[in-house]
Design brief:
Helix content: 40-55%
Radius of gyration: 17 Å
Cofactor: Mn(2+); Mg(2+)
GO molecular function, one term: manganese ion binding
Number of strands: 5
Catalytic activity: Endonucleolytic cleavage to 5'-phosphomonoester
GO biological process, one term: mismatch repair
Subcellular location: Cytoplasm
Structural class: alpha/beta
Strand order of the largest sheet: 3-2-1-4-5
Order of helices and strands: HEEHEHHEEHHHH
Distance between the termini: 48 Å
Shape: globular
């Protein structure tokens, strides 16, 4: 069984106290923002069922969201919207959302553990961890906050643009989503840079 606190324990052994886990949700969809979360968990936090958000049911993610918010020493959640994604590309927009999430913590962490292999410019030591959302408790917590927050946002957008089915697919490129794009064209929250290939093939 994976020890989800191994990376955090190593950081503390290295003299880091405030350890921030960071992850994002929504890099791949055709519509909506990318969302990032930053979470600092206390050393003695007990969160039953904590895991990579992609391995959890929607109901479990939403129940864990409330537990994480309650247990966290500090947390921040932030977006970069579709216009920013189109302007600076998805990677830089993801970094922008991560920077905003760290700012929303209201304090300066000593080190950031970031899911993936790309290092955002956060003005502090950063350790990237591939598959970090299933290896680090702090990153797993961040992945849940980001995923649930973005899902809720896309469900709200579904009431504004019901023809696309955002509540079901959350903006990802499903067969239903592409069929709606063919019939209705894009709406204001679509990422134009993500649709160039689709419309170029029509």
């Amino acid at each position: 069984m994976t020890n989800l606190w191994e990376f955090e324990d190593r950081c503390r052994e290295g003299g880091f106290d405030l350890i921030c886990g960071i992850d994002e949700a929504g890099r791949g969809p055709l519509a909506g923002p990318v969302c990032a979360a930053a979470v600092i968990l206390p050393r003695d936090a007990v969160i039953e069922g904590l895991n990579d958000s992609k391995k959890l049911s929607d109901a479990k993610r939403r129940s864990l969201f409330d537990v994480i918010v309650q247990e966290a020493y500090a947390y921040g959640i932030a977006f970069a919207d579709e216009a920013e994604i189109d302007s600076v590309n998805i990677l830089n927009a993801t970094f922008l959302a991560m920077e905003r999430a760290v700012e929303a913590l209201g304090l300066q962490p000593d080190i950031a553990l970031v899911d993936g292999n790309r290092r955002p410019p956060l003005g502090m030591p950063v350790q990237t961890i591939v598959r970090g959302d299933s290896l680090s408790a702090s990153i797993a917590a961040a992945s849940i906050l980001a995923k649930v927050t973005r899902d809720r946002y896309m469900e709200e957008q579904d009431s504004l643009y019901p023809q696309y089915g955002f509540a079901v697919h959350k903006g990802y490129g499903t067969k239903r989503h592409y069929a709606a794009l063919t019939e209705y064209g894009p709406c204001p929250i679509h990422r134009q840079s993500f649709l160039k290939k689709f419309y170029g093939e029509k």
